[in-house]
Amino acid sequence: MSGTANTSNVPSPAVITGRDTYDTSVPSWGPDGPSGPARRPVFVVTHGAPAESPEGGVYTFVTDGIESELEQAREAAGKQDVCVMGGASIGQQYIAAGLVDEISIHLVPVLFGSGTPMFDHLGDEHIHLEVVEVVDTRAAIHTRFRVVN
Question: What is the CATH class of 15-148?
Fold first, then answer.
């Protein structure tokens, strides 16, 4: 599907995330979301909207699934790309549904002893990727792949 992932350094006009990322990040994001003063709309897929959210925030809580979330984010983004960000679960859902054009991976030099594997639960089929960009910095290796259909 075209236009679902933005991996440039320019903030995406619309962001999709899951509830866990919202819950852990909103204290630092505040009402403006991850794009700060740019105030890009953030669509949060969830089973239920939180009892409280920052007043005047950029957040829309979507309770009817990732396809609806994507449709709403695309409408907000117009002809521009939408960025799916956050933890393993939301990424797995979008990848498994075939709704991702590009995948960005930022590899930092730290190994954690626990967590959720990003590419678990994707099914038995191989997902072929084409390298688009690799940027090596002191803080991380930034890679961008195009999903080959």
Answer: alpha beta
Domain ranges across the chain: 15-148
The residues, any chain, with a CB within 8 Å of residue 41's CB and separated by 6 or more, are: 13, 14, 15, 33, 58, 60, 73, 76
What string of pLDDT tens digits covers the 149 residues of the chain? 334 444 444 467 899 999 999 999 999 999 999 999 999 999 999 999 999 999 999 999 999 999 999 999 999 999 899 999 988 899 999 999 999 999 999 999 998 888 888 888 888 889 999 999 999 999 999 999 999 98
H/E stretch holding 96: helix 88-96
Q: How far apart are CA 29 and CA 148, in angstroms?
A: 34
Tokens linked to 69: 């979330």
